[in-house]
Amino acid sequence: MIDVPVGGLVADVFLPERLPAPTVVVRTPYGTPGLWPEADALTGAGLAVVLQDLRGRHRSPGEFEAGADERADGHAALDWITAQPWSDGVTCLYGTAYEAYAAWCAVGHPSVRGVAGRQSWPPAAVAVDEELWWRTEIGGGRQLRPGLYDLALTRPAWPVPLGAWPPTPSSWHPQARRASSRIRAADLPTLHLGSWYCGSAATTLRQAALARRATVVMGGWASPLTHRLQPECAIDVPVDPDPSDLALPWLVAVATGADPMEGHRCLVLGSNRWEQTDPRPAARPDLRALPLTGPASSSIDHDPADPYPSLPHSADLLVIGPRADVVRLRATGHVEWRGAARVRCRVRTDRAAELVATLVHETPAGVRTRLADGTAPITPGHAVAEMRCAPVAVDLPAGHVLHLELTVGRRPRHTAPETPVTVTVSDVELLVPGGRR
């Protein structure tokens, strides 16, 4: 490994024994040491590897502005790489989360032969807790700051500048459009690795739907870039193949002109089985209603002094206990779907608020964990609200139960009003995609 300036930014360069060689490029805001084991594996397979700190991150000079410089800086890095005597002129781009975004931004360079991205950034919709975690621990300053998110939740004022807060669509839509346009224009093999447990699941599937030659794998991977597994983890984390075991052979094959021989795969939660099927949902799926049991009409009484809490993704929601500020319904019959569930209901409220629908999986042991959620703004008066939940593949075995919870906010994941709010809900429907692709 050698440490060199690449396109004005700092990078680690790993070279195989035989040169010239194709090059795998990862441009990262997270620091390069965590990527060294994968780089070593790739050089052992005959590829060169360049791991570059993004502008304003770790060793690279400048100021980091999320989404701003990745096309120009990425092309500069690829120009430098392909001009080196050890390069055969072929590159592949790779990365997780923001690294994948940086890869998509540079995909138009003529040297690029393929892109492998895992759990891509930016998310299709931002939950407040996920955005706060990004801005405190990942997206601000030169270095990672692990633990700052948890500290921020205990402070009356944020311990670091967050920029415009709370987040709005303008926080991520420009970057999302930028990545989408690059993916749509690229006619080359792409590998899309996602996790149902990650807020990026919808982004992974949306980008894969835009790609012309996509292979899509949706699993249940747990990492700090997914749902921040807690010590009290209640999720039955599936035994998945490691994403590196899928991505690295694919990169080697594409870079050397071989057939990657990798097909679509989809992990089905609940049963935790793998299917050799395309996990991308249909663009306009037929919807069917899952029967629900519970009160025909009920009220949510929000108290700003005691808002309904949102525990970490991996925690057991049963510990929250009975409350007056939640409407809980239970699905009956066999629960199975692939894609984005929708919740519709009639609402009557005295103040504006955000209605949150949370789909909760309860195991025979009584453990309850979040599968997916969605939100909708509601205004004073009578209306129909519709919440589109995050996509997921679900097939609950016998003895497992699906609950639908309706709340006003779910702090810190979703904002809650600062004044008391009463919301009456009725005619609740849970609509799920009715068939497989």
TrEMBL record:
InterPro entries: AB_hydrolase_fold, CocE/Ser_esterase, Xaa-Pro-like_dom, Xaa-Pro_dipept_C
Regions that span the bilayer: none
All residue ranges annotated as the Xaa-Pro dipeptidyl-peptidase C-terminal domain in the record: 248-431
Pfam family, one: Peptidase_S15
Domain of life: Bacteria
Segments of skewed composition (Basic and acidic residues): 275-287
SMART domains the UniProt entry points to: PepX_C
Keywords: Hydrolase
Keyword Protein transport tagged: no
Positions of region (Disordered): 275-308
Designated name of the protein: CocE/NonD family hydrolase
